[in-house]
Design goal:
This protein has 1 helix and 9 strands. It is mainly β. The longest helix has 21 residues. The protein is globular, with a radius of gyration of 23 Å.
Length: 171
């Protein structure tokens, strides 16, 4: 028969071992501003899917539908939190911003919903996937080779690094 002091010693040993093991696995920490990397684009018909990795140290990516007051109102740059600028390869000028028929620069804007997470750590890390349809300007003679520049903004108005895709040769 095992004595109560032996059981207590075993429990304390297991508890100490658990504390030591969790101390070895520190939660990852990230800067408070979003960091984006590793852009990948796949194309199927008129649709492109852009994927990229992201981190955010305070986990405040995304805006709810109710967040419409300044600085997130519709007239503000911060109304959207994901900007994807579109570029075309011009044979003479190099990379130039793609233009719509009316002459405006083409920028895909998105208003991402808040990302929810479980646990104590606020820092988040993941892969974001964005679908664009159409993904290019079919009326442009230069839209056979394109690229994108991506910027992500969090609720604290921290702006990520700019992430460019490589050249995308459109089939």
């Amino acid at each position: 028969m095992i004595s109560s002091s032996t059981i207590l010693k075993r429990c304390l040993t297991l508890l100490l071992l658990g504390v030591l093991l969790t101390a070895c696995f520190k939660a990852e920490t990230y800067p408070n501003e979003p960091i984006i990397s590793n852009a990948q684009v796949s194309i199927s018909g008129s649709t492109a899917i852009l994927k990229f990795d992201f981190t955010d140290g305070d986990g405040d990516i995304g805006l709810s539908d109710s967040q419409q007051s300044a600085p997130y109102d519709s007239s503000s740059y911060y109304h959207f939190n994901l900007y994807i600028e579109y570029f075309e390869s011009d044979d003479v000028l190099g990379w130039v911003p793609g233009q719509a028929i009316n002459g405006d620069t083409i920028v895909f804007t998105n208003r991402l919903e808040p990302i929810s997470f479980n646990g104590k750590a606020k820092g988040i890390k993941g892969v974001m996937e964005v679908e664009m349809d159409p993904f290019r300007n079919p009326s442009s003679s230069e839209s056979d080779t394109i690229k994108y520049k991506v910027t992500l903004i969090d609720r604290a108005l921290n702006i990520s690094n700019e992430l460019e895709t490589g050249a995308i040769v459109v089939p």
